[in-house]
């Protein structure tokens, strides 16, 4: 296997982009990444997208996006793993460069979610759950994560306030990210008094519906010196699955696919979790971030709520989690999220993260998740 | 890059499988492939599927299918390139084994298409076209291929009867394939008198709506001797894109993505098209097979109609095309088709193809296509 590096990143402002279609959002972002690397030619494209069929009536994104980027006849693939589609795209691109099949690969993620009604969006997102055993019986994702939250509160004494503190921390960070959908601070009281979605989760516990894209340029590490910016090595890649239905899990409070994927990625990199200087993780709901910090091994089982309360996961804490603002403040265009996590880590390792910069960051970890943890993808990135 | 071999194949009877859901169809097929190889353990899964979101309300197939196959926490990915999703899955699996990331990879393709109405199926399939410039204006796939057929007839004198002869040949072949959806012969007259769909294409020019799956097991070629059956090497893999909209093409009668993908796959294999002993190609409509035989270089531009008339592409002809029955007779569960093409070539190279066996077949080519040729994936397979 060849070593693989990220030599360019791109991300545009996320939000409700009613004036732009999926292809426009993607192409603008991909051009930024190409420009950041200073390349024109690519050998291949991999695009992560969860459900362009249900959100926009458009599949066949490989053909569409290579066409609109002016890259035909370059090979182009779309990959899907629900909300971890972006992380999966990064992994597939890594595999393609590592194998020697391609040298320069554009990995992108995109989702256009606001051209449908709220009900249609909830249905489309629900296709990440087990339709026959969850969806058809009325379960939506806020409801599934609400059950996980209740179980965690009951088993470990996690408090309603600790859930809110995850959202407050991520908005603090996001207020320093000009590309975030919601770049402003919120308070614990604001979370506690926001509209109830699925008890105990309120609207400010939930990541939003977002239009957006993110892109990175990969190449063999031995070529990385030729490009404009300092390169970042993909030192480890791990992916794992778990039961798609929450009801089949041994423990409602534990995300096993994240534990396995992280272990694999760290083993490939020859690192431990304590070697990492920052973490971009999948806080689709506040309870998710708490459970992820436990599954990654940042804190013992059941201590994720306490960790955020004590500032352990804040910028300046021992384990800075989601300096970008996370899914909560930055936004969550589902297929783009996993790629955007890598964009943030690369910016941090280059020292380009502005007011949210983690000082001396040399290594970072991304954790991207599908459904209630039915799939997880973890990458370890290191400055070269 | 490591050499990659196919050491197991599986396919179940295709058709309107109302009593089975997507997960059941996939798992039954995957188990056949695992049994054929004589393996239990896999390192990874790649699944090709075009639009499970629109056909069944279910995305996140990696998690779902590894779960129901009893393989959690194995990494599992879903890939999509419209009707070439299966070919893309094979290519991604090839990349994953070639890179050294995984040793034993299950590559599957699946589509469950008959749980929706005809209109809904037409809409779902239409998402392979350019929705903004084709779909929203009323264009469906029969209409797009009808325009290609008219252009080919006008430019090269291809006849209505020659189109019919493609369907007749593929039903002749399919009548010898017990797993085919329509394992019976038809006549030229039957095609000419069948219901008109989009002039000049009639219902018997069109591949059907099908439920089905196909699966293969990949491993490094150096491990291939350990398995039950004779192994087949993936000697070449090529993929290419073209404009998604037909209106942007330079030539309505030419499938450039297939030409490029085939050239790449043959170059990787160090072979020419004349070294191949059989061809499984994407005859979604009769005109498609005619244009593909030209793009592959089996016959000069414009001579594809004449070729089928003269028996060149029949079993026993110089270039046997679609001995399995092709999409027309075998069926076309869109995400499964590309994998099923590889299943057929492996069976032929092993001498397991029964009444449709190509004598002495040692090398075969698969060509899988998305949309009107917006993407193509070609593989060269050789007996080891």
Binned strand content of chain A? 15-25%
Strand order of the largest sheet of chain A: 3-2-4-7-1-8-11-10-9
Low-pLDDT stretches of chain A are none
Oligomer category: homodimer
**Mean pLDDT rating of chain A:** 97
Task: Report the principal-axis shape of chain A.
Answer: globular
Derived from helix and strand composition plus strand pairing, the structural class of chain A reads: alpha/beta
> What is the count of helical runs of chain A?
13
Instruction: Please compute the radius of gyration of chain A using only Cα atoms.
Output: 19 Å
Q: How far from one another are the termini of chain A?
A: 18 Å
Order of helices and strands of chain A: EHEHHEHEHHHHEEEEHEHHHHEE
Helical residues, percent of chain A: 25-40%
Biggest sheet architecture of chain A: 9 strands, mixed
By DSSP, the count of extended strands of chain A is 11
Q: Could you tell me which chain pair has the largest interface and how many residues each side has? A: A-B, 66 and 66 residues
């Amino acid at each position: 296997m060849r070593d693989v590096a990220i030599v360019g990143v791109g991300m545009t402002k996320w939000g409700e982009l009613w004036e732009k279609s999926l292809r426009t959002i993607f192409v603008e972002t991909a051009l930024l990444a190409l420009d950041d690397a200073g390349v024109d030619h690519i050998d291949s494209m991999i695009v992560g997208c969860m459900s362009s069929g249900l959100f926009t009536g458009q599949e066949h994104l490989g053909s569409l996006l290579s066409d609109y980027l002016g890259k035909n006849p370059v090979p182009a693939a779309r990959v899907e793993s629900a909300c971890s589609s972006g992380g999966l795209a990064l992994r597939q691109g890594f595999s393609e460069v590592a194998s020697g099949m391609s040298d320069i690969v554009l990995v992108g993620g995109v989702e256009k979610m606001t051209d449908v009604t709220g009900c249609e969006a909830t249905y489309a997102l629900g296709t990440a759950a087990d339709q026959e055993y969850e969806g058809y019986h009325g379960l939506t994702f806020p409801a599934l994560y609400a059950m996980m939250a209740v179980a965690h509160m009951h088993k470990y004494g996690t408090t309603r306030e600790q859930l809110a503190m995850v959202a407050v921390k991520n908005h603090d960070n996001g207020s320093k990210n000009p590309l975030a959908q919601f770049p402003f601070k919120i308070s614990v009281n604001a979370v506690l008094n926001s509209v109830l979605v699925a008890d105990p989760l309120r609207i400010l516990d939930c990541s939003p519906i977002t239009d957006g894209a993110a892109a990175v340029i990969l190449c063999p590490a031995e070529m990385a010196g030729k490009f404009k910016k300092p390169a970042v090595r993909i030192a480890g890649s791990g992916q794992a699955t778990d039961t798609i239905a929450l009801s089949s899990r041994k423990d409602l409070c534990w995300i096993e696919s994240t534990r396995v994927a992280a272990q694999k990625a760290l083993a490939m990199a020859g690192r431990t979790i304590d070697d990492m200087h920052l973490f971009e993780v999948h806080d689709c709901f506040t309870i998710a971030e708490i459970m992820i910090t436990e599954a990654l091994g940042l804190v013992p089982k059941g201590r994720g709520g306490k960790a955020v309360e004590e500032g352990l996961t804040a910028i300046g804490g021992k384990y800075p989690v989601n300096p970008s603002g996370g899914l909560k403040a930055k936004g969550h265009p589902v297929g783009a999220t996993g790629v955007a996590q890598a964009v943030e880590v690369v910016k941090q390792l280059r020292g380009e993260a502005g007011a949210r910069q983690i000082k001396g960051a040399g290594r970072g970890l991304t954790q991207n998740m599908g459904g209630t943890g039915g799939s997880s993808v973890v990458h370890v990135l290191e400055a070269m």
